[in-house]
Structure formats: structure tokens, C-alpha cells
Design a protein that fits this description.
By secondary structure, this protein is an all-alpha fold. The chain has twelve helices and no strands. It starts with 7 loop residues before the first helix and ends with a helix.
Length: 204
């Protein structure tokens, strides 16, 4: 039976208990030199996040504010697991605003990719929040915010209409020529899947 984790301290302890020096070396290759790393396999981290999905707001805040890469990734995974639940529109809006409010805690592309589609893209698709936030993110100086702008609309491809997909393509066009490789790769990913979906609908 899965043990529920109710405090940030318990989450951090669980992450440290799962630490693996081999995994730490792998992760170190993709994070900033000064970013603390614990060394936890992604599958293990996802399991810990599932066990912490009901953390209180204060305890979740403590994860967002923690220095280590894995603790902040766990916090964004918690948001993603919450977004997978059956929620009212206002609850989805709350998750989206929390993602945006805590975007400064995002230090790597995988934090964006894990949470942005469901946590941000879903409430935009159902108009629980204003889709204009994507334009704001696309114009941000931070490349990870720009990656959020084009990664969130992946949910449009999964659940939206052709018009929704075109909205995402407009964001992709706004990011044409972006100098950051993590933004360019996300634009390419969006376009690839968008055109596949539109072709399957006879729209391309």
C-alpha cells in the first residue's frame, strides 16, 4: 500500500532515501552547475509525487522554494497529478495560476514539459483562464516561459478543435527564429504533432 506523504520534509526525506550516485551524475549533465541535485530516478520521483498529491498549500510552497532540482520537479509533478483528477473549472484555474505564480521555480525544460499541458493548457482550452497568457509567456525574456507558451498548447492537440490547434500554431509562429534551443525544439514538437492531427482531420 502506498504511504501518503503530508509534509515537504517527508517528501525531501523520501527523495534522499532514493538517492543514487549514478543517477545524480546523469542529472548533473542537464542542470545548472550551481543547482543542487539529489540523484533520483524519474520513475521513483513520480511515485513520490503521487504519494504527495494532497500536500497542503504551505507544504507545497516549501517544495517550490527548495533549492534541489528534484524537490521542485516533484512540486510540478504534484500539480500535474492533481490536474489528472476530475476537477471543476475553477479548480483548474487555481492550478494554472499556481503554475504561473511559481514559474520562477522552474529551472529545467522537463519541469515545463511535465506540467504545462494539463496544468496550463487544459484550463485555457476550457476557457477557465484567459488564453492571452500564452502570448505573454511567448514574449517573456525567460526561455523556459517561452517553452511553457508552446508546450501548454499540446493539450489543444489532444483534446481541442482545429481552431484550438491553430491557436497553438500562431504561438509557434510568434516564436519562429527563437535563439534558444529548448524553445526551438518545443516549437518543432508542437508543429509536428499539430500537423499530424490536422492531417488526420483532413485539415491540411
Amino acid at each position: 500500500m502506498t504511504v501518503s506523504l503530508s509534509t515537504a520534509a517527508q517528501v525531501v526525506e523520501a527523495l534522499h532515501d532514493a538517492a543514487d550516485p549514478v543517477e545524480e551524475a546523469k542529472i548533473r549533465n542537464r542542470v545548472a552547475d550551481d543547482e543542487p541535485v539529489i540523484g533520483v530516478r524519474m520513475g521513483t520521483l513520480f511515485g513520490i509525487a503521487k504519494s504527495a498529491v494532497d500536500l497542503s498549500g504551505t507544504e507545497l510552497d516549501a517544495l517550490f522554494e527548495h533549492q534541489a532540482y528534484e524537490t521542485r520537479l516533484t512540486a510540478f509533478c504534484v500539480l500535474d497529478f492533481r490536474a489528472r483528477r476530475k476537477l471543476a473549472d475553477e479548480e483548474r484555474a487555481t492550478l494554472a495560476h499556481l503554475y504561473l505564480d511559481r514559474h520562477d521555480a522552474i529551472s529545467t525544460w522537463d519541469m515545463v514539459d511535465r506540467a504545462a499541458p494539463r496544468v496550463l493548457g487544459w484550463p485555457i482550452l476550457i476557457e477557465a483562464i484567459d488564453g492571452g497568457v500564452l502570448d505573454e509567456l511567448a514574449g517573456a525574456a525567460d526561455p523556459l516561459r517561452r517553452r511553457s507558451a508552446i508546450t501548454a498548447p499540446l493539450w489543444f492537440i489532444k483534446q481541442g478543435s482545429s481552431a484550438d490547434i491553430e491557436h497553438g500554431l500562431a504561438i509557434a509562429s510568434a516564436l519562429d527564429g527563437d535563439e534558444h534551443p529548448r524553445v526551438r525544439s518545443a516549437v518543432e514538437i508542437y508543429r509536428k504533432h499539430a500537423f499530424q492531427r490536422l492531417r488526420s482531420q483532413g485539415g491540411v
